Xanthine dehydrogenase family protein molybdopterin-binding subunit (Archangium minus), 744 residues
Amino acid sequence: MTTTSNLLGKPINRVDGRLKVTGEAKYAAEFNVPGLLHGSVVSSAIAKGRIKKIDTREALAIPGVLHIFTHENRPRLAWFDRSYRDEDAPSGSPFRPLYDDKIVYSGQPIALVVAETLEGARYAASLVRVEYDSHSPETDLRARREEAYEPREGKGGYEPPPKPRGHADKALARAAVRVDAEYSSPVEHHNPMEMHATTVIYETDGMLTVYDKTQGVQNSQQYISKVFHLSPEEVRVRSPFVGGAFGSGLRPQYQLFLAVMAARELKRSVRVPLTRQQMFTFGHRPETVQRVALGASSDGTLEAVIHEAISETSRFEDYIEVVVNWSGLLYQSDNVRLNYKLVQLDNYTPIDMRAPGAVLGVYALECAMDELAYKVGIDPLELRLKNYAERDQNQDKPFSSKELRACYRQGAERFGWARRTPAPRSMRDGKQLVGWGMATGIWEAMQQQASAKAVLSIDGKLIVSSATADIGTGTYTVMTQIAADTLGLPVEDVTFKLGDSSLPKAPVEGGSWTVSSVGSAVKAVCEKVRERLFQLARKVRGSPLAKASLDEVSFVEGHIRLTKEPSRAVSLTEAMRHGEVLSIEEETLALPNMPKQSRFTRCTHSAVFAEVKVDEDLGTVKVTRVVSAIAGGRVLNPKTARSQILGGVVWGIGMALEEESAMDQKLGRFMNHNLAEYHVPVNADVQDIDVIFVEEDDSIVNPLGAKGLGEIGIVGVAAAIANAIFHATGRRVRNLPITPDKLL
Ligand code: MOS
C-alpha cells in the first residue's frame, strides 16, 4: 500500500502536554465526588511474626472516623482464590491484604482507617495500637546465598537461561586471558512523582467506577472482579493519566484492594492514597550478586562466558527476571554457561522496574568486558567489535535487524572516543580526573495482541480508542500520530482515548511493547476505515477514483487523492455524505505474526559512552557527558522517543551513583524510605546527554517497524559510568551504587 507518511517520524508535541502543564490532567487521587471518604493505611512495624493484638478504640474515638478495617473484621465479601494471578504475577500466591494475623514483610498493610477527611484518617491511623509477636526476619541476600535455588516455574514470557553450550569452565581454565569477578547491585525502589492511589466512586446502583494508578486498567478490573466476585460489567477502571510508574503499576497494588473493600462494605465512595514512605512497601528492583567470568585469547577473542546471578524473592512468590541470558547473546562465544537462582527473603515480592533483569545482567557483563579489554590491552570498543554477534547463539537464530555496529560508530564519533588515551588516570581537567567509558545495551522488541476501535464521523473527526495506558511515555501522542497518518487527517481532528477498562482490550503498558502492540492495532483499525472510505469515495457520482484501486490513492489532508494525479480527489466528508453514512465504526484485534516473528531474535540495541569527572579529595563523581546511540527500529516521534532515552540515561546515572534502598537487617526494614535519603539524580547531577537514533529497518517486529524504546535507554548506562570511573581513577568498584565513600 502506498501511503505518503506525513506524520510518522515527525517530532510533534505531546497532544496531552497542555492538560499536564496546566494541571487539568487528573490523576487517581484527584477525582472527587460529594461525600468522598478517605482511607489511611496502617503499616506493620515488624517484618516477620504475627499480630497479637490490634486495638482501634482510641482511633475510632476521633471525630469523623467511620470504620477501621483489620484482619479481625475484614468483610467476608473478599475471596481469596489462590489460583488467580494478575497479568504480571509471578508463580506463587499473590499477597492478600488483611487476610490474617501473619506478618510477612515490614510495611505490610495491617489496617485501613476510613474517615471523613484525609487528615482525620491519618491522625487516627497513628493511634492504632498493635502488639506483635515478632521473629527475626531473614532479609540478607548475601548471608543466605547458599540457599539459592533455580526457580521452579516461569511466568508468561520468561525465558530461563539457555542450556550450556560448549565447555565454558574448561575453556575458561585454558584461556590466555581471564576475568573472573563478582558484581552486585542493591535493591532500588520506583519513585514516580505520583504516588499510588485509588479513588472508588460508589455509584447509586452499586456499580464501581475506580480511578486507579495503574499501567493496566483491565488488569485492575480483572483483579477486582476476581477478588470480590463481581462481574466485569459491575466495575469500570479508569486511569487517564499516570504520573510515572516504571513497572510499579504493572500489578494491582494493595491500595486498590483496600479502597474497593471499604467502598463496598460502607457503600460509599472512598479514596486510599499511599504516602511516599508506603511507596517502599510493594515491590522493588531486586538485589543481585553476580559472577561474570570471561576467557579470551591474547588478541581478545572471547572463548568462554560464565554468568551466574543470585537474586531475591519473597516467601510467597518466585519473582523472576531475565538477568543472565543476555550474556549468551550479546557477543559471539562457543562456550557459555549461564545460571540464575533465587533466595527467598522476608520481604515483599520484587516487581519489574524499567528494563527488569537486563539492566542488572548487562551492567555486570559490560563491566567485565571493560576489565577484559584492559587485560588484553585493546580498546574497549574494539573488543566489542571483535566479538560482535551476527547471530543469536542462545537460540541459534538470526536477528530481525541489528544496527548495533552503527550505534558504536555513530556514538563513538559523536563522543570523540578516538581522542581517548587508554591508560587509567591519563586524562585530567585541572584538579579533576577525567574518565571515558562505554558499554553496550540490549532489550527485547516484543509485540502482544491488542485491539483498537475507530469511529470517524462525517465532520471529519476521528476517535480511536484502546484500553492501554500512557505512563508518561507518549502513548496518547504516538497513537494519535499513527491514526492521523493512516487516514490523512490533521492531528487536531484525531482524539485517542485510553486508560478505561471499557475500551477495546489491551495489555498492560510495559515491556516496551505498547507502540508495537497497540500501535499495530491502531494502524490496522484505521486501515479498515480507509477501505470503507475508499469504497464510498468510488461510488460518488463522477468519482475520479471510480476505476482506481486502494494502492493507487493517498489519504492526505482529509482527501483521498489519486497518487499520480493528486488534483483528482474526493474528500472524506463528501464520500460519507454521498453514501449517506454518518459515521464509520471499526474495531480490530492485531495479533503478532508469530510464524514470521519466531524465526528471528528481535531486540533493540544501544551503545552508551560516558564521561565522568572525579574529585579524588571528595570522592565525588560528575557525569559530565553521555552519548547514547540507539537502534530501535523506526522512530515514530523523535521528540517523545528522545525523552524516553533521556529519562533512561538519567536513571542510569542514579543507578550508577546514587540509588540504593538500604535494609536494616535486624529490623528487616528499608531505612531510607523517603526522597531525602533515597537519592535520585537532580538537575545538578544531569549535564550533557546526547541521543542518537541510528537508521534501522525492520519488517519483522510488527507492521510499523518500531521496536519500542521504553527500556533500552537505561541499559548499559551504569556500566559505561562505572567503566569511566575506572578509566579516571584506576579503581574498579564492583558494587553499585558508586558512592563517594567507595572512592576515598
Ligand atoms: Mo516496564 S518495567 O515493563 O513498566
Q: What stands out?
A: The chain has a mean pLDDT of 96. The chain has 15 helices and 32 strands. The domain at 448-591 is CATH 3.30.365.10 (Aldehyde Oxidoreductase; domain 4).
